[in-house]
């Protein structure tokens, strides 16, 4: 087996493992949203609860971050490392802004008188907290992946012929983006 063939198989294996991981993560959220649907029939369910505006802003922010990551990967493939580096740093800033918006959303929920636990909590708001916090945990993992990609980029480990690391990072980041859009739309419309 040639070196090139070995690298191709290695890349396919890593991408397949990432797909399995992402599918299992999605199944976790499918279970949480299924539990949400079942719980919505409870008599103590809040039908008037509205998602905070900060969640709308965070959705826009994470979608933009997916574009910046995509274009960073594109510029690496073109050999334009300077532009790719700026786009990766922009993606990191947008990821941090997403987390900031999420915490602002939690603050809006609390200011509306809804809490995660205690006498002021409801089943509805507890589900919203759980779903968004579990997503934030995955996003923190995404930020760590992004930091590794940025570190490797500035160590010049990526070039037009070696893009596996940035491709895997982008796949995971896009997955987190799609997952949040799914969760946001689910919570907003259900």
From TrEMBL:
A Pfam family annotated for this UniProt entry: COX3
Annotated Heme-copper oxidase subunit III family profile domain residues: 1-190
One cellular component term from this protein's GO annotations in UniProt: plasma membrane
GO molecular function terms attached to this record: cytochrome-c oxidase activity
SUPFAM superfamilies per UniProt: Cytochrome c oxidase subunit III-like
UniProt subcellular location: Cell membrane
Positions of transmembrane segments: 16-38, 54-72, 84-106, 126-150, 171-189
Principal place of residence: membrane
Gene3D superfamilies: Cytochrome c oxidase, subunit III, four-helix bundle
Domain of life: Bacteria
Keywords noted in UniProt: Cell membrane, Membrane, Transmembrane, Transmembrane helix
Keyword Hydrolase on entry: no
Annotated membrane topology: Multi-pass membrane protein
GO biological process terms held by the UniProt record: aerobic electron transport chain
Family under the similarity heading: Belongs to the cytochrome c oxidase subunit 3 family.
Protein's recorded name: Heme-copper oxidase subunit III
Organism listed in the record: Flavobacterium alkalisoli
